[in-house]
Amino acid sequence: MRISKVYTKAGDAGKTRLAGGQDVWKDSLRVEAYGTVDELNSIMGLARVFNADLSDTIKTKSKLEDDLRWIQNKLFDLGGILATAPGQTFKNMPVVTADHVVRLEKLIDACQEDLEPLKEFILPGGGKVSGFLHQARTVCRRAERICVNLSREEDVPAEIVKYLNRLSDALFVLSRWVAKTQGEPEYLWERELS
Predict the structure, then answer these.
(1) Shortest CA distance to 47 belongs to which of 139, 134, 107?
(2) Using an 8 Å Cβ cutoff, are 177 and 63 in contact?
(3) Closest to 174 in 3D by CA, of 68, 40, 21, 99
(4) What is the 3-class SS of 49-78, one letter each residue?
(5) I need a labelling partner for 76 at 20 to 30 A (CA). Which of 14, 137, 146, 193 fits?
(6) In angstroms, rounded to a whole number, what is the distance separating the alpha carbons of residues 2 and 14?
(7) What is the pLDDT of residue 185?
(8) Is residue 103 within a helix (H) or strand (E), and if so which, with residue range?
(9) CATH hierarchy code of domain 17-85+94-185
(10) pTM (two decimals)
């Protein structure tokens, strides 16, 4: 796909077009869903930027880059599916499948092998990379909630909701794994006793 012009002026009245040409309001649930996935993808990009800035002596840097790049590409696919009018298909349309969900599960399992079980809740933050992964997790949960809401009104492939659900789990585990393997701090919630 080649984009030769960024602005079209077609959206100035509050509407946009889905892939397939259907006009919808810009505040529709479908637009909210793919917009939130786009926001999530942007945060993933920030995590990758900060990961790239780390010293090459950190042995997990390359693996994390590979995982985050795959996740970003899959999120772009997911956004494209959500931006397509229900019932519409086009040549080479991206897909999100059960295999993609399984890949996230394997990523979670592999990272958890390096982690101690949690004894308390974690405060989001710590280091730059893990902090952005925590933020990505919260936006991912919002994207999931919006897609669930949308699925009650329109057709949304079930694998999209499953993928977002598993991705939020993966982002939580990745944030912990990064903190441990890249020497970033991890802060536990301190329960105030009365």
Answers:
(1) 134
(2) no
(3) 68
(4) HHHHCCCCCCCCHHHHHHHHHHHHHHHHHH
(5) 14
(6) 24
(7) 81
(8) helix 98-112
(9) 1.20.1200.10
(10) 0.89
- Written as six digits, the tokens of 77 are 């696919």
Q: Please count the helices (runs of H) and the strands (runs of E) in the chain.
A: 5, 4
What is the C-alpha to C-alpha distance for residues 96 and 182, in angstroms, rounded to an integer? 30
DSSP state at residue 19:
B
Cα 22 off chain centre by: 26
Task: Find, among 82, 29, 75, 97, the residue nearest to 171 by Cα.
Answer: 75
CB neighbourhood size of 84 (10 A) = 19
CA 80 to chain centre: 14
**What are the respective helix, strand and coil percentages of the chain, to the nearest 5?**
55, 5, 40
- pLDDT means over runs of 10, the chain (194 residues): 58 79 89 97 96 84 94 96 88 92 97 86 86 96 98 94 98 93 84 77
Structure token digits, residue 62: 């390359």
pLDDT at 7: 59
Q: What are phi and psi of 137, to 5 degrees?
A: -60, -45
What DSSP designation does 193 have? P
Q: How does DSSP classify residue 192?
A: P
